[in-house]
User: What shape does this take?
Amino acid sequence: MPSVIADNLSKVFRVADKQPGLLGTLRHFSHRKYRDVEAVKGVSFSIEPGEIVGFLGPNGAGKTTTLKMLTGLIHPTAGAAQVLGFKPFDRKAELLRQITLVMGQKQQLIWDLPTLDSLRINAAVYDLPRTEADNRVAELADMLGLSDEMTRPVRKLSLGERMKCELVAALLHRPKVLFLDEPTLGLDVNAQNAVRQFLRQYNQQHGAAILLTSHYMADITALCERVIVIHHGSLKYDGELRGIVERFAPLREVTFELKQDPAGQDFQRFGQIESTDGRIVKLLVERSRLTGTVNRLLHELDVLDLTVSDPPIEQVIGRLFEGAEE
Amino acid sequence: MKRYLHTLRIFWSASVGAEMEYRVNFLISLFNSAVTLAGGVFLLLVFYGSGYEMGGWSWPAALAVIGVYTLLDGFQQMLLAPNRTRITQMVRDGTLDFVLLKPIDAQFWLSLRQLSLWGGPNLILGAGMVLYAGASMPAGLTLGNIAPAAAGIVLGMAILYGLGYILSSLTIWFVKMENITFMMAALLEAGRYPIPAYSPLYRVFFTFVLPVAFMTTVPARMLGGGTSGGGTSGGGGGWLLGSLAVAAGLLLVSRLFWLWALRHYTSASS
Assistant: This one.
């Protein structure tokens, strides 16, 4: 049975529309105008236990709304969500004991107290015996490389340290399904790496399913074999990460270096010119014509060096969002 | 149940810990409480010396009302107000999500998570005043009037909580509602004096529209053995039953209203 099922999930929000200025403010106060915004439109997918799935989309694509429907924080306007066989919106304690939500922009730790105090509260709420809780905290702290940070007031921690502590608080009850909304937001490269490694390790140790949103492609490429892309609330792609390149980037990049300055040469006949920089030329060539084109290049020109590569995944996804915009 | 009690203990020790984290602030608050307490006692002595009577209530009976008011005010400052403020904050910044995803009753968490020590002095002062007032009454202090008065006070707390929680639930729709705190303080303030001392229109309003009379006047009546201490006589047990009905009704409504509000919760945008 899949850990998470989204079946035709949709959410329509009613939002207030306010015109700027004093008059707009007065109107907004007395005759508030609303319009409906379709944040998520008929999104379906499922996630198996132990899978790490990247959930991608530009800002406002409906990622957070989908996560909130899957965790049961908001009720879908249409469609159904199922997590570990439960309907999330019922918020049954039995389900809540097995899931967690981490939000990069929000924190559950008590600001004025050390992390350990917040962890005591979570241990009590999840009904963990003292020794068991201590063992788990020690284990998680070890995986994240935390030590005396846990006894320092949270307000005195750096962003990276705080996020690590947030993860300890969010995973103390050993959830089987993790919903992570930008867990590496604003972290430096080292902290991002540490969080990534930790998530992979947790996933391997506990076989947990993870749905992860992030704007850092490095998070996605390091952790996820499968990605789901949504844009304007609709599902655009669900499949292997590599498949994105094949599907949305049918062109490959051919870079070659010539022996002599290619004055007056017409490269258009080989493919789309991406750039020329002295003797180095970059062309975009369709996959189907790749071998033929490379052959012709080597025959017809005096080539010193030649490489073929996929365009970087960030670029492909960026272009995918731009394309969807139109 | 055991888990809830254990959780409550951890909640409150964390609250006190957070308060004591800022040592200077803690000392200032301590000093502030001591001054307020001294001021309250001084005011009582001034009143007491003049032999003033209000609404046909003897001085000890009126003192009992003020005592109950002070006690409830302390309770409100200690438990109700800090939690109400926190609910508003959590709705606004979206951290309510974390509470809703915990396998524990959200209303329990939101009602009892915070504890402020600074209502303590008023709580103690109020209890002292009630006991002193009881002792000054003709019947003196007996279990027969202390027990119903205590029951009345507990019901008063429940009424105060129920009303406040209903207002707090409105935060789900209106988001910014810090003024609830002031409103609840003002409401309780109306019960500072015996309700029969007000003009008839106010009396009806404070009894049937806003149940202020049940919060302070009823427990004080119980202390006087169901009468207002030699003045006008009241209905005794009938009033206490009334309190019970109001408290039970408000608790039930607050629960149902909260559950209904949650269905409308959409949580602050990412």
Observations:
- The mean pLDDT of chain B is 83.
- Chain B has one domain: 2-263.
- Chain B touches chain A through 27 residues (CB under 8 Å).
- The radius of gyration of chain B is 20 Å.
